[in-house]
Amino acid sequence: MNAKNLAHLCLISFALCCLSACSKPNPEAEAVKIVMVAHPTQNQQQSHSFAGEVVAKQQTALAFRVGGQITERYVDVGDRVKVGQVLAKLDVQDAVLHLNAARAQLEQAQSAHKIAELEYKRFSQLLPEHAVSRSQFDGVKNQYQAAIAQLKQAQANLSVAQNQTQYNQLIATKNGVVTERNIEIGQVIAAGQPAYQIAMDGDREVIIGVSEQMIQQIKPQQQAWISMWSAPEQRYAAYVREIAPAADQTRTFMVKVALKEQASIQLGQSARVFFQTEQQPSLKVPLPSVSAVDNKAYVWVLKADHTLQRLWVTPLEYQRDGVLIQSRLTPQQWVVIGGVHLLREGQKIRPIDHENRPVTISKHP
To answer: Residue 224: CB partners within 8 Å, gap ≥ 6?
Structure first.
């Protein structure tokens, strides 16, 4: 190889080395991800509200005490009823037959009792004169006592039969409004089968459903306020009367909130119940800020050098516009708003706010 070729080879090798050096990535020149951040806000909410329905504080189901066929029905849903008012009637033919049979049994028992009583008195007079034996007297005495028992039984059966003729009428026991009807004319019902549901006059209350997260903050006798959807400007003082011990199928707990005073509100009206609950110190962050690993929630916090730090948090309540959390987070810190699952610990970012302005953090002294 001559000197000219050697010089060319050296030039080519030098050029390749330069190209190779230029192709190596520079860590500082890597593109930094742009991430939107925001300050958490302090929870300013002082009260919670729940939608509910106005119901009567006391409701009762009325039913016939005997079975039979419905022949008359006098009231319907929405009708007002008073104490002693007849609501429906059953066919009385069978009851009348039972009553006649009970009367006949009573007459038979009375005749048997009269005969047994006369026989007993006669043997009582003959016993001291030794005209009858002791065993004969005891037999007559037992027959007399049995006749007395049969007479009492017949009298009781007659009373039951008389009552059953009266039980063929369903009578209102309280003043109120019919909220439900379960019978029709011609229908055959059994004894105790509910015929009407009556909402009694008097106190009214609102039934609401409370979630699992909030039920611990509501206590019996806790103060509350109620407003109607039709008149939201007017509020009524109320209190928590009853809390269901277990959740229903919707995973909510039924809470009954009673009015403290009588109010001119109608059954079935839509209402809203307001509570002032004991709030834990908490902050609110946007919904996309919270993620989780192994069922442990966290947010990404921006450090002074524009790197990310994972901060574990405890969610208190999920709301429409954010999540109430409890943690070491302060309102002065910045948290990442979206795409939190694509970030990593210590990653450097370019933070911007809602108006696409760069965010800078002054280092702590």
So the answer is: 238, 239, 240, 257, 273, 274, 275
Which of residues 240 and 163 earns the better pLDDT score? 240
- pLDDT tens digits for range 46-104: 567 899 999 988 888 999 988 889 999 999 998 999 999 999 999 888 878 888 899 99
Alpha-carbon distance of 222 to 195, in angstroms, equals: 36
- Contact status, residue 229 vs residue 271, Cβ threshold 8 Å: yes
CA atoms within 13 A on the CB side of 320: 0
Q: Within 13 Å and on the Cβ side, how many CA atoms surround 97?
A: 3
Spatial distance between the Cα atoms of 175 and 85, rounded to a whole number of angstroms = 9
Decide which of 56 and 16 is more confident: 56
Two tokens, residue 185: 């004319």
Helix, strand, coil tally for the chain in percent (to 5): 30, 35, 35
**pTM over the 0.70 mark:** no
Residue 74 in 3-state DSSP? coil
C-beta of residue 240 within 8 angstroms of C-beta of residue 224: yes
User: What is the structure's pLDDT at 17?
Assistant: 44
Structure tokens at 156: 């009781």
58 phi/psi in degrees, rounded to 5: -125, 125
Could you tell me the strand order of the sheet in which 283-285 lies? 41-42, 283-285, 322-326, 314-319
Q: Which of 81, 37, 52, 1 is nearest to 301 (CA)?
A: 37
Q: Is 186 helix (H, G, I), strand (E, B) or coil?
A: coil
Is the predicted pLDDT of residue 198 greater than 90, yes or no?
yes
Number of Cβ atoms within 10 Å of the Cβ of 161: 20
Strand pairing report for 223-228 and 59-63: unpaired
Tell me, rounded to whole angstroms, the distance of Cα 335 from its chain centroid.
37
d(CA 13, CA 15): 5
Question: Are 137 and 123 within 8 A, CB to CB?
Answer: yes
Mean pLDDT for the chain overall: 84
From residue 285, give the alpha-carbon distance in Å to each of 7, 291, 307.
Answer: 68, 12, 19
Alpha-helical regions (H) of the chain: 3-23, 93-126, 134-167, 212-215
Query: Model confidence at 185, in pLDDT bands (50, 70, 90)?
Result: very high
Task: Indicate if the pLDDT at residue 354 is higher than 50.
Answer: yes
